[in-house]
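User: Please predict the structure of the protein below. I'd like the answer in structure-token form so I can feed it into my own downstream comparison script.

Assistant: Understood. Taking the following sequence of 193 residues as input:
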Amino acid sequence: PGVHRHLYRMKLHGSDAYSWLLLEARSVLQPDGSTLVFTCQTDITKQKRNELILEINKKVEEQKYRHEISFLREGTEQGLVAKGHHDLTADEVIEYFPVSGRAFVIDKESSYSDACAAFSEMPYYEQDRKALAELTDREHLIKKFEAGKTHFEFRYCRFSNEAVPGWVSFTINTFRSPLNGHIECFMYSYDIT
């Protein structure tokens, strides 16, 4: 007596395709001592294909994440000013690399939110300041990630201490960390003056 389940993968006749079937059997002991068996067969091919697609997508995202980590630590591109890795869920700065002397400096003890607040106080045009503050807002980035948007670019004018304008291209890529499930972002600033 009890429930027995078995999963079968069957090749479809005349095809290279497979079908997944779940066979469930329940045996019931009758009062006269005989056993009655009820069976149910369910085609779960669509479910198995969806699971496979999710697993492939997860592996692709993990590979993209590892590539992003590698680029953050080793990559350099012409005009790169600064690059950073941040945990949006935990509101933490994980890593930050000021590459040039024009880079904004982040205190290693700062939270992500505090670093962004200080960053928004740099000398910008007011409309750029507002756009940057919205773009880098933790909650905004998390909501956009959950909605499927994971890449952001923004160009703005920033003034040096000598009030000389310079153009900056700012890129943000968001990911779900395969290590802890947190939403993280990688940020890159380029001098495009």
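That's the full token string. The radius of gyration is 27 Å.
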